[in-house]
Every structure is written in C-alpha cells, then in structure tokens.
Amino acid sequence: MKRLLVLAAVLLVGLMLAHCGKEEATTESKYETLGRAFVRQLAEGSYDSITAGFDSNMARELPADKLEYIFGSLEAQFGAFKGQGGVRQSETGGFQMVFVTMQFEKSMLDAKVVFDSTDRVAGLFFMPTPPDAAYTSADYVDMTAFEQIEVTFGDTFWTLQGTINIPKGDGPFPAVVLVHGSGPQDRDETIGANKPFRDIAETLAGRGVVVLTYDKRTLTHKSKFAVWEHYTVKDEVIDDALRAAQLLQGTNKVDPHRIFVLGHSLGGMLIPRIAARGPSLAGFIIMAGLTRPLEDVYLEQLEYIYNLDGDLSEQEVANLTESQAQVGIVKMLKPNTQVTKGDMLLGVVPDYWIDLKDYSPAEAAKAINQPMLILQGERDYQVTMVDFENWKEALGDRDDVTFKSYPALNHIFIAGEGPSTPDEYFRQGHVDLEVIEDIAAWIKAH
Question: Which domains occur in the chain, in start order?
C-alpha cells in the first residue's frame, strides 16, 4: 500500500518515502546547515522550536505532538538515535531538498527536509539511506536480450514517466504492467537497497515478455496529494494502472490481446478493482496481495515489529495505544463524514478509508473472468499466509487460478532465513529467480 512498507507499519502512507531531484555533491551549504540543525533539534526533542519554522501547510499537518509521535515511532522501530552522518542537497522546482543521514541503534535513515524560498520547512520525509555501492542488476539478467524505451503517459494533470522493457525480436510479445505497493513508489519499486520491479522487468523482458514500469502518481505528483482532501485508491493506483495497460495496447511488438497486470502488495489487493474496469485484459498476477482490512493489518505489522526484541517499551506501548485509537475512528467512519485535511487518520484522508470499507478483495476476485496467478512469500510479515489462504478459500475451486507460495521468501520475494524483519530491506538482494520464471511460464501459457 506507501507507501514504503519498511516504515509503513509505523507511519503507513502519511510519510512520503521518496527520492527527488538530482543530487549534488557540494561543500556544506546554508541549507545543509539548516538541515543538520533540524535533525539536532529533532533528537533533542525541541518540537516546538522545529514547528515554529514550518510553513503554514506543514504547521497544520504536523503539529509538535505529531512530530514527537513520529520520532518516537522511529526510535521504537530502529533503536535509539545515535547521531548524524553525511548530508547532501538537491533542488527541485524551487525547493531545496536536504538529506541528513540519521544513525539509529539498529539502522540508518535519511531525514529529507524540504525548504521553500523563504527558508521555511515545507516538507519532511524519512527514507532508507541509499547503499554505498551502486545498485547492480541481478546476475540472472541478460541485458543484451532486450531494449528499454522511456515513455510518458496519462493526462495533462497526472502525467507519469515510465520504462518499457522490450524483448529483442519481431514479436508480437505478451506484455505486463507492474503495479506497486503502497507509498510514493518509483518505477523500480525501490525498497531500501532493493529494486524488486527492476528485477522482475529486466528478467521477464529477457524471456520474451514486454514489461511496463512507471513512477507512481503519489511520487511524481506528491505536492498535489499534499493539498487534496478527497483521494482514494482509484486516484492513487487504479486509474494509472489502466492507463499503463492502454499504453501497451498501442506499443510496437506488443500483442494487444495478451496484456496482463501484476499487482504487488496494495497493487495485488486492488487487482479485483482493476479487473472490473479492464475486461479486455488477458489475466492478472497477485504478489503478496492483502485480503484483510488495511487498518487491521497496520496494527498487526506494528505489533510484530515492536515485539521482535521480545519486549515493549513505554514509547511502543504509547504508539500502539494511539494507533489503536485511530484505527477505532477509521472503523466508525461513514460515507457522509465531513472531510477536512486536518482529519487525516493513519496518514491519509478519511475518504481513503471510507472507499475501502466493505471491500473484500478475495470475495471481489470471484467476479474476475480472466485467469489469475497468486504468489506469496511464506516469511512475509506484512501480507501473511493468512491472506494467501483467504485467496485460496475464495478461488481454490477454479481451474484457471494458480497458487504458489515460497518458504524462504519475504514480502518483496527475496530469500532469507528466520523471522523476517525490516532490516532485510536495507541489505541488497534480488527477487528469487524461481518466482520470475514462474511468472514468465504462466504468462506464456495464457
């Protein structure tokens, strides 16, 4: 579902975990100094001083008590704050982006502090610190077997950029759109040090499948979402997934009758809604698709992470209590609820939650007429085997639905051992090749 699930268990989709703009290596600038001062005050608990430097929108959305809650959540998940690391700066659209590395006991995060032209703070995001080494494609990818073209699609208000990976040869080839999980994801679905969508796209293209990946609307147009009071998953995910599929229909070498949609996490959860508006699509692939209410799984993830060390701190108990209260409000929302931006719950507006009320993905999937492939990592703590079994219970009697789970894989289908933890996402790995080969074989069989 926002957004980046490493942090979504604590912050859900409220914090936009994204990279923006072209980074520059410079000597320490005024804004880098301001960024360091911001993080220092954050660590000292000077929340009132920090919020005094916010612009009007940030002051409304992130008062001192909420900022304290967020920093407490970070320490609860990643351990005590130990100090600052490097700092870097970039510029986008007249805004100065300062990335300050924060060293916690268990991991590192970057605080992205956005300054406007008057030096006031106009945005605050937390994200995994990029790995020192540049990302490299998986060893199993044959980069000579396909070509890539950059594309722009969507309407003038919601223009998006993407990449189409096209096998070499005459075609026509089957094609698939990759639909992200929650948060402002880029086209590679970058999560920590990993890029699962790049692994899938490059490998499928080398095996005769055209693949379209794209930067999500909540990444490209996050400033529009920041002031929008009435968005839903239709606006966040569904419209663009369908536009991407339409783009493939007119793409050279693509067989327009064999276009598939693959949804991961939130994208998998929304496959039934995408399918309802895409009757001409050839089939659907659900990877770690959620079947239960999003707010319930939010709490489940939070409790799982907090209990990894076998003990709950006072801050963790407080965070759980606050989250339980917000989930209770979500449960009571009605369609006629008066919506204002200040009423955000678990990081999103009430309309988002109201739209998902009574939505049962597994039940809704019964109305899908096309074939489906449903995949699950058995070590996934975010979308669990409970969800996989719910898909099987709803669709298990259909001959055109295939199910497969993988004992060693986590939420992004990378192998590991023992209980899965958020720290896994900070270590670079690659989607298990068996998963991608299963997808390729299934697509070609249909």
Answer: 20-128 (3.10.450.590), 143-295+343-445 (3.40.50.1820)
